[in-house]
Design brief:
single chain; about 220 residues; alpha/beta; Rossmann fold; Arc Repressor Mutant, subunit A; five-stranded parallel β-sheet; four-stranded antiparallel β-sheet; 14 strands; about 40% helix
Length: about 220
């Protein structure tokens, strides 16, 4: 899962990004609305976490702007402005949920799962391919009901491939599913993830194979 975090407190943003990474979530962070809008044009996000007090304006103005551009990514407002009328204002302008600071990461995760279950979410909550059932939200993979333990980044690669089964997935798309835009990606990092993932899938009898499409990307096919 990949999120966009729009938050002006750098320490909070870093702590939250780190906590979310433990749940298999890649987080892009910006503190500016203008940059956030450009990021939504360049990337596909499963959800957006939005603060209200930002250096270049009121965060709620971002929601109608994004909707007018044809983007309906779920948005959760995270803010210290948590009076009843302020919550009503946020929900009425189009936020999918509204969470006051401070909050528990477990509660945020529960709210993320809730908004992603609502149509028209673009996130497939569970993916069946080969003998596997993949649950990206809960970071779990089973092979015929037997849990398959995968490192976080290998699981993110697998989920990105499984969502596009039988289709070539560009290297850039896979890297975007695993790394945020601020991370430096080693040239062979993705290939190393794929290599280890292939072995784990083969050993588990997952019923799928990852094929290298030379110079383009990778493709997941059922065997």
């Amino acid at each position: 899962m990949r999120l966009l975090l729009i938050e002006d407190e750098r320490e909070l943003a870093a702590a939250l990004s780190g906590a979310l990474s433990k749940h298999g979530i890649v987080t892009d962070h910006t503190m500016y609305l203008a940059d956030a809008f450009e990021l939504t044009r360049q990337n596909s996000y499963d959800a957006i976490l939005l603060d209200r007090r930002l250096p270049d304006g009121e965060g709620l103005t971002f929601i109608p702007m994004l909707r007018r551009a044809g983007t309906y990514t779920p948005i959760i407002v995270l803010t210290a402005r948590n009076e009843p009328l302020e919550r009503v204002e946020g929900l009425d302008v189009g936020a999918d949920d509204y969470l006051g600071k401070p909050f528990l990461v477990d509660e945020l995760m529960a709210r993320l799962r809730a908004v992603l279950r609502r149509p028209p979410s673009l996130t497939e909550l569970k993916i069946t391919v080969g003998r596997m059932l993949i649950d990206p939200l809960h970071l779990s993979v089973t092979v015929e009901s037997t849990p398959l333990d995968l490192p976080r980044r290998e699981l993110l690669v697998l989920a990105a491939l499984a969502k596009r089964k039988d289709k070539t997935v560009l290297r850039s798309t896979l890297e975007a599913a695993v790394y945020n835009y601020e991370e430096e990606i080693q040239s062979n990092a993705l290939d190393a993830h794929i290599s280890r993932l292939r072995k784990r899938l083969l050993d588990a009898g997952a019923g799928v194979a990852v094929h290298n499409i030379r110079g383009v990307g990778y493709l997941l096919k059922e065997e």
